[in-house]
Design brief:
It is found in: Secreted. By secondary structure, the chain is mostly beta strands. The chain folds into two domains: 6-159, no CATH class; 166-281, OB fold (Dihydrolipoamide Acetyltransferase, E2P) (Beta Barrel). The chain is 13% helix and 40% strand. The protein is built from four helices and 17 strands. It has helices at residues 10-15, 157-164, 175-184, 269-281, and strands spanning 28-30, 34-38, 49-54, 58-64, 69-74, 86-92, 99-105, 108-113, 124-127, 132-137, 147-156, 187-199, 204-217, 223-225, 230-238, 250-257, 260-263. The strands form three sheets. A six-stranded mixed sheet has the order 1-2-4-11-6-9. Strands 14-15-13-12-16-17 form a six-stranded antiparallel sheet. A hairpin with a 2-residue loop joins strand 7 (99-105) and strand 8 (108-113). It is elongated. It starts with 9 loop residues before the first helix and ends in an 11-residue tail after the last helix.
Length: 292
């Protein structure tokens, strides 16, 4: 007789949450942000469910030889009252396989990522209050070489909407949006487009940027290269935006997303100088960017 999948037993499993995961310390390595574990210890009792607790705004899950299931509890170190303003995004590893990933709330499951989905660079987002993550291993004849893994990020709903609204990176920003982007973006640089690489499969363009002035960066995306001592880096945007190499300097702003720089507002630098001066003269600029 074929046994029922774990997902069919989910209401019972959720009721037993406090009893699960005991004695599992030898099965995984974990810190506040990342979890790495193995399903090999579940071979003799495949109905095991592992509880995973993470308290960071970003990190990763890596589950080797998946059997049984994982319940992933994301508990960022912020006030629970702020949870309703959060969006969770996950990005499966390129070769992730061996499990389905569900969105779970009060025992109800909604399939988020199907085992074997090979959509390149696909990111799946949902409101924090829509539920948690339930990762269930799929039946396998051979679990060797199977690794289910994904990165996760938690961010405010407004930032997530900007990143995942298809038209947002392509639409020219208003003067007000540019000035706010200067104050709130993860990176702000003055630079030129050296080259553009289009990746048709992933529907993205990689902008190779030569940096003339670095105002701010959250991560070390833009770095000194070679003996010339020039700063360079890469920014990604949607292929449909049709970015092409060209003359002149731009003010590039944007967000970091799964370790990559994503393009936000990018006016020509001379246009930015104009709008910044006009706002400063009226006392309306929201922050100081410093000298050119």
């Amino acid at each position: 007789m074929r046994s029922a999948p774990l997902s069919a037993l989910l209401p019972l499993l959720l009721g037993l949450r406090l009893l699960l995961g005991g004695g599992a310390a030898a099965q995984y390595s974990s810190d506040l942000c990342n979890w790495k574990g193995s399903g090999l210890t579940h071979e003799s009792h495949r109905k095991d469910v592992e509880q995973v607790y993470l308290r960071c705004s970003e990190g990763s899950i890596e589950w080797m030889y998946p059997t049984g299931a994982l319940i992933v509890n994301l508990r960022p170190n912020i006030s629970p009252a702020s949870y309703k303003h959060l969006t969770v995004c996950i990005k499966p590893f390129k070769d992730s396989a061996g499990a389905n990933i569900y969105l779970e709330k009060t025992g109800e499951l909604k399939l988020l990522v199907r085992d074997g989905d090979r959509s390149p660079s696909r990111v799946y987002c949902f409101g924090y209050d829509q539920g948690g993550l339930f990762v269930e291993a799929t039946p396998q004849q051979d679990i060797s070489r199977k690794i289910t893994g994904f990165q996760y990020e938690l961010m405010s709903k407004g930032i997530a909407a900007d990143l995942h609204t298809a038209s947002a990176p392509c639409r020219p920003c208003s003067d007000t949006e540019v000035l706010l982007a200067v104050c709130t973006s993860d990176f702000v640089i003055r630079g030129s487009i050296q080259n553009v690489t289009n990746e048709a499969e992933e529907q993205e363009s990689i902008i190779h940027v030569g940096v003339n002035k670095l105002y701010r960066q959250k991560s070390k995306v833009f770095q000194l290269t070679g003996e010339s001592g020039n700063w360079r880096g890469q920014i990604k945007t949607l292929l449909e935006c049709g970015v092409k190499p060209g003359d002149g300097d731009f003010l590039f702003t944007g967000r970091m997303h799964f370790g990559e720089a994503r393009l936000g507002c990018a006016p020509r630098f001379k246009d930015f100088q104009r709008m910044y001066k006009e706002a400063k003269d009226k006392g309306l600029n929201p922050c100081e960017i410093g000298p050119d």
